[in-house]
User: What shape does this take?
Amino acid sequence: MIDHQVRVHPSAARLPREEQLAWKLAVVATGTQEAGELDPDAAAMAANRIIDNASVAVASLPRRPVAVARAQALAHPAATPGASVFGTTGRVSPEWAAWANGTAVRELDFHDTYLAADYSHPGDNIPPLLAVAQHTGRSGADLLRGIVAAYEVHVALVKGICLHEHRIDHVAHLSAATACGLGALLRLPTETVYQAVQQAVHTTTATRQSRKGEISSWKAYAPAFAGKAAIEAVDRAMRGETSPSPIYEGEDGFLAWLLNGPESDYTVRLPEPGEARRAILDTYTKEHSAEYQAQALIDLARRLREKTGPLDKVRSVVLHTSHHTHNVIGSGANDPQKYDPTASRETLDHSAPYILTVALEDGGWHHERSYAPERAGRPETVELWRKVTTVEDPEWTRRYHDPDPERRAFGGRVVITLEDGSVVEDELAVADAHPAGARPFDRPAYARKFRTLAEGIVAPDAQDRFLSAAERVAELSTTGLDGLFPAVDTEAVAAYDATLPTGLF
Assistant: This one.
């Protein structure tokens, strides 16, 4: 790996493009083409994430934000060849397929994650890559190459550049990664990818208000918007158009005005020429439909529930955890909505106090029932919920940022004080499904997750066909990519869509 220093340069310095971060990211993409065969473990994990995305996408088909995105996409049909949309048989323009499918994948907050200096859901790269692969007649092997390249760039940016401390939303890293993935998929020249990265970053930088206070449905749309914008940026770059440059290092650019200012100095570590692209193996998926930093809390609550006894005897519950968890999904966020029984699903998904409460009561988690209004509004739940707080523990913050992925921790220690003064406590560093956890997710676990979420939506024989296609994605032809969209009852989906208000399209 090579460490690249990224800092602000005045326009008069005329920073050569070969020294700009956007160019170096583009080189990673085009170098993925030249590196030959993909690392087999990385390729296998990419296939797992295709399964993971489809699992959560089909489960979210009847949800309103997904239906709205689908309706918007279907208003932009493509005669030949176009791209598929989950839940339909139609083909649409690829950027609109990325919009609809990206929203479906993100809606339940139930796919993969990578946490370091910043946050990310690198699986959000897959919908736009799959859409463009279908539209341009690429193979399954081409798709895998694009996915592995996108993950490589995404992980590097998340490790090296923190956005959230400046209240910038993490999709700015996503759009750059998607543009690089598309470059690798399509075997584009480095110059074209370089221009596309800059245009994508420029147009997808937004604040984190979408994840603050009363969280709206835009949380599901945000990565889909980034994917759509990346496709459009690549299209413009392929036509010879240029972009704001240097987007990262410019004196009026990303670092200078949105991050650490003129004195910005970041280190982004990227693979050497010819080095295997294995960053996807550093990422991890979710067993539970909740914010990743709550995954270990749900597993820990299952253990604590057996030790605590009657929950009406609880005086207080305190979670000792990292700065990120305390301030983003904990009481340190100072969002009263995190304790509101009428809050949106998106808000409850980002409330560690709520998630810990329900997991203690139920001993588990369900992607729909755990968020139901009647579940959140139970009087005994609300009573316990009000007793749950979080505090930052410097040791957990240090472990959150440990450079060794084997020691990195995203959990915490829960201390439950009962009415009689006795204390029950336990801690868990990572979720059970994490690569370093008690039972890491493997291919059979991804298949089980798909079958569980597809039950009642995808017929058993259609489930089998999808899993067969996903497990041999490297061998798929262009037409074979259609098999990565599980067949569902499209009439039922269309009937639901017909109940929605209409828009402009």
